Amino acid sequence: MAVSVEQIEDLLGKDHQHPTMGLLTATSRGWVIPLFARHLEPFGTVSADEFHVRVAETLEHPDVPRSDRTPAEHCRKWLGDRWIESLVKDERTYYRLSSSSLRALQFVRELAGGESAVGSARVASIEFAIETLAAAADPDRQGRIARIDARIAELESEKRGLETGRSREASTSDLRGHLREIQILSRTLPADFRSLQAKIAESHKAAARRAWNDTPPKAELLEDYLDKNESFSSTAEGAAYDSFTELLTHDRARKLNAAIDHVLEQPFAREHMSAAEREEFRNIVSTLNRSRHEVDQERMRWKEFLRRVVTRSSLNRNKHINALAQRAMSAGATWAAKAPGHRTVPTELLGIGTIEIEDMSQIRLWEDEGPAKVSVAVRPHTTGLSRSDVDALRLAAGTGHRAVRRHVNALLEENGRATGAQVLEAMPPDNRRLGTAISLIDLAVEHGSTAATEFEIVELLDAAGTATRWQIPLTAFTAPVPSKENA
Questions:
Q1: What residues in the chain have per-residue pLDDT under 50?
Q2: Reduced to 3 states, what is the DSSP secondary structure of residue 334?
Q3: Which of 24, 377, 471, 477 could form a disulfide with 448 if both were Cys (CB 3.0 to 4.6 A apart)?
Q4: Which InterPro entries match (predicted)?
Q5: pLDDT digit string (tens) for 373-411?
């Protein structure tokens, strides 16, 4: 959609009320945007407690201006500015980036990485999009068939070039350009999905307020729901959501994942893609699917609310009880203000009568039995340790500092240098646990080096023995780690 100059002037003339513009022009953007990129964007949702800790750590950095706000107060301000969003799961509060902040991060990333000028990859994308539009917009069936025949002829010519060895191999620069183009396109979808989720949530809140205040007919609520649901699909974000959902429900998803695996097996991926780029490329589909799943959850909440309203016959009764409670609270406040003191409530104040209650349980809620008598008996253990205790001791020994130091020094003798990922890979699979990673980082802080802004992806086992991927600071060792006895 073309944007006129008047629309641009209108946006900039509102004192940057748009959240994206507000974030990009805020005086705190120098530390807030990196904070969002490092601690929110890679994880989707982060618990409020954990994110407050990250904010506190950032505020202690010498380059960050001093502020009287606490981390929680900063987060409340960002919620008001619509830079982040909050949600509650399992009675815990979580934060996530808003669609406006995701777009701001994408814009800054393009500026920092020069991704807006990717050479032939961008030209190829534009050419393919124009050809697709020309074919889709052509009402003449024969014209569309002719275009398909022309494309088949091009593919046949390309095939003959490969067979005869006359085709030019793509350069590393071309491959990097295509990779950046894929990164740009895939990073825009989560922002679109988040925007669609926000629209659904707002419609949900409006429907809830209307159902509670106006009590519209059920048929009218259903009709409004269907109209809203159809209108979402007509938006650009809804169309992107529907297209990605269609991709997942067909054989196209399997082919796409196979193509991703094929790229990662090539020398280009091993030699010219960083570990972070390979991880991001490998998880493109799963990352987008996670964002799509959040939209599905929002829709399910809307459907569940509608089901409760449609099937509940006591809505008017609940509203009546709520009105009576409000009357009682108002009357009580007025009475207490005019005549404070102990009073007996009249029997028919609310018109619901009184209930006579008689305690028949004879339960004594508390009784002082005097000082408690405690005796300690010590019995010798003659059967040996249990299997679980032996396994726990073996795991503690295999993940402690001594075991990690032994593998670090062995790698140093072999290669002269050892990274954290290499150390973990050299250890037995059963000992690759979170405790091992903590021991590794402790040793690197004291005897090696750690990078504050660089990370590497490692595979660890959880308590159930399931392999999970973790992002840990990049660590390296160039000198043997001494034992405590020799330190």
A1: 117, 487
A2: helix
A3: 477
A4: DUF3375 (IPR021804)
A5: 766 666 665 556 667 777 777 777 777 888 888 888 888
What 45-49 contacts at long range (C-beta under 8 Å, 24+ apart), as own/partner pairs, is: 45/87, 45/89, 45/94, 45/95, 45/96, 46/94, 46/95, 46/96, 47/92, 47/93, 47/94, 47/95, 48/75, 48/86, 48/92, 48/93, 48/94, 48/95
DSSP letter at 64 equals: S
Residue closest to 178 by CA, chosen among 135, 128, 134, 244: 128
Instruction: Calculate helix-pair angle for 434-447, 401-415, nearest 10 degrees.
Output: 60
pLDDT in tens, 141-154: 888 888 888 888 88
Tokens of 235: 């938006």
Q: Which residue has the tokens 């399992």?
A: 90
- pLDDT at position 99 is 85
**What is the Cα Rg of the chain in Å?**
32
| 19 within 8 A of 83, measured Cβ to Cβ | yes
Instruction: Give the whole-angstrom CA distance, residue 347 versus residue 330.
Output: 17
**What are the contacts of 294-301 at 24+ separation with CB within 8 A?**
294/44, 294/193, 294/194, 294/197, 295/193, 295/196, 295/197, 295/200, 295/241, 298/197, 298/200, 298/201, 298/204, 299/200, 301/204
| Cα–Cα distance measured from residue 487 to residue 479, given in angstroms and rounded to the nearest whole number | 13
For residue 180 the two structure tokens come to 């950046």
d(C-alpha 11, C-alpha 6), whole Å? 9
Matching residue, tokens 């201006």: 65
* Residue ranges with strand state E in 24-104: 46-47, 84-89, 92-97
